[in-house]
Amino acid sequence: MALISFKNFSLSYSDDSPPALRGLNLDINELESLVVSGLSGSGKSTFCLAAAGLLETYPAARQGGTILRRSRGEGTGSGMAVVLQNFYAQITYLRSSVFEEIAFPCENLGLPREETRRRVEEAIEKIRIGHLAQRNPLELSGGEKQKVVLAAALAVKPELLILDEPLSQLDPETTAYLADVLLELKKEMALLIAENDPYLTLKVADRLVVLSGGMIAADGRPDVAINRSTSEYLDLPAWAICVDEATRRGIIREEIRSPAYELDYRRAMRRLRDRI
Amino acid sequence: MSVKYENVFFAYGSTEALKNVSCEFNSGRTVLVVGQNGSGKSTFLRLMNGILKPSRGEVHLGDTSTKDRKTSELARLCALSFQNPDDQLFAQDVEKELRFGIDNIGADGSLLDPIVEAFHLGEHLKSNPYSLTYALRRLVAIAGSAAMDTPVLALDEPTAGLSIREKKFLGNLISLLKNRGKTIVIVTHDLNFLLPYADDLLMLSLGEVQFSGRRDDLFTRNDGRDLMKRSAVGYPICARISSAAGLNKVCFDAGAIVEEMTKK
User: Using CB atoms, which residue from B12, B36, B245 is nearest to A273?
Assistant: First the structure.
């Protein structure tokens, strides 16, 4: 069974605002790596919050349909971990070091002390923040705080890791490195990532869901779902924009569909060069 | 109004954030400040309008040194929009939020309408900022700072959390302010989107200047790519595809790349 099933699910934040999600039908499966893209206000964050179960206390009157969850299996893992878009709000500031901050969710799960220590060390190594371990979280830069929250989520070893624009404040080198980390993680857990960066999506996602006005505008393999018809909702990779630009100017007559939108920009640009 | 840092040092307690930073940007330039996480970018920005004062060295806005001016006075010269919009927003509705900075420094507010239009904020003026999406909250925070009409505008990570639609709005705002001769200093990791707008770049690594100067100079000098790598900036995608397209120079947007390709 799917980890989470949205069945005709709808949600409005208030009586006079339009629904943030409308009649959503969607399963998140075990070990699936799902990216949700769309314009701001399309429902990406609401979808993440709903999947995380953070909207369950919302008045029933403003919700429709259901969200079914597979019950959590035996073992030391937790069902989910979440990194919010506003990750600043997730740092407790009750702990005086990054190491202890990352241990916080593991302690909440009641894990044995040694196990917690092991997991925190592992997460710190994975996110490459050893140099921050003894710093006070209060003193960190924005991007460093984002890495700490990410490490704390990893330490939980969830079945489903939910990340709302997890790399938004990170430098390009870290972004590239963490994309590789996510690629590794998806062997161990399902990923739900709200993200508009096409490079990350093409690299990490098995499946891309494009939301528009709280509804699914596209759902499929990323290299198929990122296309001219969804380009009003999401960023295209730069080489795809070049291909579109050349088509728009009538420089190339035949449409280059593939592999222009694929990850291999060298091949894409060579193809375009050959056609011009 | 020009911006000049002269041998600036700054430390948070025992953590040195900036070490001997010197750089100068002329009036009307758009400057991107780039570098790895924790390299001192936000600190650099906070020193610009006097929220922080250098432990050593001086920061000049035009002829004014921030050293002997109050932050409230410096706010007339340089408005700053924070990295986390939620640190900035507090008014009951968007309109009050947008007027706050203007009224505070006694500006005439004539930039407000063009900004509201560029950002398509008209329909949200009566909304509580905290009922808006993250992207809209960021736009409101940027708009509130920009509307102060200061000669220098400092933006910290303005594209983080924006979707393609709001990024285009932001691009329009930058063009609008540039046409009015503003000096715009932007801390960012989003070179893919912002490089086309940049005149100058400042690259920081571990609190020190790795490069300061014209954007095009960084991309033409032999060690440019190494410098970017060393500062964790990576090599921007526009530069990669320019080279994959067989161009012998770096173009910064798709239009320019395609045009160069047809010339060959």
Answer: B245
